[in-house]
Amino acid sequence: MHKMRFKILLAVLALLMGCIGSSQTREYKIDGVIYVKDAQVPIADAQIAITAGPKNFAIRSGMDGRFSITLRTALKSVKLAVEYAYFQPYHGTIKLGVDKELSLLIELSPENEGYSLVAGRIDYALPEVPPVSLEACCDAAFEPAWFEPQEELAEVIVEPYTYSEAVAREIGRAIEADGFTLYPEAGIIVYRKPEKLTIEEFASSAAAHPLVKTAGINYPVYPLAAAAAEEQLIISPNDPGYAHQWNLAAVYLPFAWPQVGSGAKVRIAVLDTLVDTGHPDLQQNLNLEEAYNVVRQSRDVSDYPGRITQAPYSHGTHVIGIIGATTDNAEGVAGVAWGINVEIIPIVVLDENNRGALSNVIAGIQKAIDLDVDIINMSLGVSLRNPDQHPLYEKIREADVAGIIMVASAGNDNQLVYPAGYPEVIAAGATTYEHQIAEFSAKDGVALFAPGGSHTESEPAIYSTDLVGPSAGGYSFARGTSMAAPHIAGIAALVKSTYPNITKSEVEDLLWNTGIVLDPAQPYQRIVNAYAAITETPLSSAVLCFIDHTTGAVHQAEFDQDRHFQRLLPPGLYQVAAHIDSNQDQAVNIGEWYYQSEVLVELGQHIVDLDIRLDIFQ
């Protein structure tokens, strides 16, 4: 009897153990890839839904069509659904068993089997970079360039105390005018100068006459409406060194400058080395009253000849020149922040040997916060083991709370350094003349790039202001992410001036959303696009259409945040048009981003690499 009871107990126990075992939760990793049926073309941004009992999980495929999810469940199977526009939805069951890692291949069929797939990328066009001479040496000096006006200035406007023809003749005889024209409605007289006098001498002679109230040169005036289309879409400064500054065209600055709004003053703190405070090309934008030397705890931030014997002789001077060299003054080089009211405040955090302690940087950031600056540029960096626990991060967060835009060099040894590595700081990577990420530049973790020059001496570097002295001519070439950071800081200043109420995060989002993807495999890495940022025309605003030449039917295509698109189309010849309608007038206007071409779609022949690049319509 006892034996029988023992056997029954064992049987019940075994049954219970089996039930418990059958309901054990297990972890499964499900990987998959979604393709167009019979095409091996990945489908990006497809909606994937997995149902496990009462739980629902939603994910999307990446640009390579892949997806991955990890589940913990006791179920033997889960439901899978995939949806993508213009394709038949997919529904299936995933059986779960011993294998904890599952790989799926899912093929979607077009809703209409007579359609073919057209897929590719859409982006801004990379700007054309002008050819650059490499003959200028690092310490080349420039003489001021003088530009004669298009028309010879030969007339002077005079406003006499008493207006009459008799007075006009008396003044004309006295200043030996070659003739005059009366403007009785305005009470002025225009005199033509004699050949023996320059226009300046003639104007001075007129102004000195006792019957003359005011006198001034009669400069020519041009219709601005006509000039807007021809001249104001793109402008080039007259600085002689601009011929070497390929980097400015590489980020569309010649197109951006005419669109800049001169709003409130923008204050930029540059945490760097000593600065050539007497440099003639920096005087206009330097704020030396609030400058500070953290290293010496003084207001003396002036650099001096012989401190460094290799270009750039003055790192801080070179960086500041990229941001704010006086532009269009027929001298030296052009600065990024042309056309706005900008103040650059040098804060010295590196010593005479271009070295410094993080305590200097922290103190420098605090000084910038106290000065209530808008932007901080830090062309410096250091590797940190525990960056989130470092006092530097606390100061970075204080600046972030204060709404200060921070830009820092990403690093020159293919490794992201700090403070650029902090999420509150824009990490500036470097690009070359060929629109490639520089070999030396940090890449991983870097989203924004700007010109920084090539690693090789045979390719163009960045030309900017430098120390004026016996062995240095005031300008030099340099390369590095130190040069990339001030480009981004300067463009941020242009944006801030144009839109004074824009926030820190809005500036950062705008710079990234208007950036140009450098490598389709890394869509988050983008070079800044000054023109798109200033005109607030992110690529997400573009409308992409395929227009059937035969029927006139318009097929609009959507694209994802990585700028990939896919569209099923019936066979035919199509006009491809992409446009950012800046003023919403349903027309393509001069200065707007636009693309147009033709593509032939054939039955069963998928197009998978269509590259659409919007250029500036001129």
Written overview of the protein:
It is a single chain. This protein has 618 residues and is an alpha/beta fold. The chain has four domains: 25-111, Immunoglobulins (Immunoglobulin-like); 155-217, 2-Layer Sandwich (Alpha-Beta Plaits), CATH 3.30.70; 250-534, Peptidase S8/S53 domain (Rossmann fold, 3-Layer(aba) Sandwich); 538-616, no CATH class. It is 20% helix and 29% strand. The strands form six sheets. Strands 15-16-14-17-18-19-20-24-23 form a nine-stranded mixed β-sheet, with helices on both faces. The protein has a seven-stranded mixed β-sheet with strand order 26-25-28-29-30-9-27, with no helix packed on it. A hairpin with a 5-residue loop joins strand 25 and strand 26. Helix 7 runs parallel beside helix 10 (481-498). The longest helix is centred in the first third of the chain and has 21 residues, at 2-22. The termini are far apart.
How many structural domains are formed by the residues? 4
**CATH fold-level name of the largest domain:** Rossmann fold
Identify the overall geometry: globular
In helices, the fraction of residues equals: 10-25%
Helix count from the secondary structure assignment: 12
Distance between the termini: 102 Å
Are there runs of 5+ residues with pLDDT below 50, and where? 12-22, 134-151, 219-231
